[in-house]
Amino acid sequence: MSTDPTESTPLPILLLNGPNLNTLGLRQPEIYGSDTLADVVDLAERTASELGYGLRAAQTNHEGEMIDWIHEARGQVSGIVINPAGWTHTSVALADALVIPEVPIMEVHISNVHKREAFRHHSYVSPIAAGIIVGYGVRGYEFAIRRLVELISD
Ligand SMILES: O=C1C[C@@](O)(C(=O)O)C[C@@H](O)[C@@H]1O
């Protein structure tokens, strides 16, 4: 990475986690593992920082709050990594919102949703995502940030 002080700092990456992901580590560890949301944010911060980016992270159980944050992200972030959790499979409104910031979106699922119930096989977010990382456990967040930075740099 260049250390030229005249070079401007890139806009941060936004990491968004949807409903119930605040309970990571407790919730169905046989599916989601034992890492907590704090561990995920720590991993994401370290990965972003290694690549020269700051990270803003937020989690909510309230769909309208998530949509407001996505609107506010327009012009403020370089790209978005999102695990939409249950809204993946239900929310046209979330997918509509994610187009508004006009930045690359990476969709992450900790579990392999395609190995699970049929209702988890469809995602409203995937058609607008630049890429999807599924079934790599929480390391998927790291891979998503690495890919996001490649996309931003292109
Ligand atoms: O809450 C979640 C988490 C999830 O997005 C995942 O990370 O594997 C998969 C979704 O089906 C589920 O509703």
TrEMBL record:
Task: List GO molecular-function terms, semicolon-separated.
Answer: 3-dehydroquinate dehydratase activity
Q: In which pathway does it act?
A: Metabolic intermediate biosynthesis; chorismate biosynthesis; chorismate from D-erythrose 4-phosphate and phosphoenolpyruvate: step 3/7
Task of the protein: Catalyzes a trans-dehydration via an enolate intermediate.
Protein source organism:
Gordonia desulfuricans
Q: How does it assemble?
A: Homododecamer.
- One biological process term in Gene Ontology: amino acid biosynthetic process
Instruction: Report which superkingdom the organism of origin falls in.
Output: Bacteria
What is the name attached to this protein's record? 3-dehydroquinate dehydratase
Catalytic residues (positions):
32 (proton acceptor), 109 (proton donor)
Give me the residues that bind substrate, please.
Answer: 83, 89, 96, 110-111, 120
